[in-house]
Each structure stands twice: as structure tokens, then as C-alpha cells.
Amino acid sequence: MNTMDCKYPYLKCRYYHGNCKYLIIGPLREEIVSVVPSMKLYHNILYDNEIKRIKELSKPKLEKLSIDTNEDISLRKVASFRKQNDQVFETINRRLVQITSKSTTNIVDKYVVTNYGVGGHYLPHTKYIDDDNLINSKGRDAIVIFHMDDVPEGGATVLPEVNARVPSVKGSALVIYNTPMGQFLKFTQYGSCPIVYAVYGDKWTMSVYLKQ
Keywords of this protein's UniProt record, alphabetized (predicted)? Predict the structure, then answer.
């Protein structure tokens, strides 16, 4: 899968274990999407039964969300969960610890599930909203975006400032790391391309912020 232009020869794919004893036995497929800012794509992170459970939990809770009333930058529905809401989130929380080499106390426990229908999109932006409606991202180490569907046409996660395009591949997780100054600058603004055809159905993602 080509996530970046070929003029970046230092980008690579590899097997990653992070000195975790579980991952040494079964290492992750890690794809380096960008070096500055640091962005990594991991494959086969979510299992089919977990994706099915997350969608089942989310469908009754989905609500339309717009993060800017003056611009048409968002066409999507969202549902939020704490890790305590279901065992599936506890399991994913532990998996994030293995991927990022953090302790469980550093993993933010709010998971945001997003559904994009046909034409659903999320234009690139730098506003990040959480429980306190904070735009400043200080204290956040990274954002993780899980893809829960294969979308052949459209639906890619894009980061225009670094010329990155990450297709929606079922079960994958994109990790976008913060800058040393504690800010998600314009380099890390991201968006979601529209779903092209009705035959491809919709697109589901799940995101979570990680604390520093």
C-alpha cells in the first residue's frame, strides 16, 4: 500500500514488537507514513468480532456532529464511550499500551466512534474537541485513528501538509504523534475523504487521544 509519494525513500514498512513479550511472538506490521510529524500505520489491530461489537454499541447512540457552524467541514455521526462501558474498550486499551509502550494510566479512556455515510466527510482542520471543548492540545501525546471498514473508493484519511493519504483498511490503526512543544500544528491537521459510491456503503472509524 502506497501511503506517501515515492520521493520519500526513508519511509518503510517493518515488523514491530517494541520489546513487548506478546508482540515478540507475533509482531505488528508497522508502516511509517511520515517522519515529521511522526505517523505510523499498524495493520490488523482490530479483530472482526471487536469491530462488530463496537458498531453494535454505537448504532443506538450515533448523533450528528458539526464542529463548525460557519463552515461545512463535517458530515458525520458520532458516539462516545469510556473504556469502562464495555470489555471491548478495555481490551483495546491494553493493546494500545503494547503498541505505544505506555502505562494504562496514560491512555485516555474516551473513545469516539464515527460513522460516515455516502458523501460523509471531515475536511482537514486543527480543532480538537474533547470533554472540556479544548482546542489547545498540550498534554496529548498522540491521536489514534482506527479504521473499521475497507473502502475501495474514497474514505481515505488525508494529511495535506505532509502529502499523506492513508486508505481505510479494515482493522488498521493510524497513530499521529504530537510535536515536542505539545501542539498539534498544521502539519498534523487531518481529514476524511468522502465515500464515493453507495455500493460501498459507509465508513466507520474510532479515535482516541493519548496523554503525554
Answer: Dioxygenase, Iron, Metal-binding, Oxidoreductase, Vitamin C
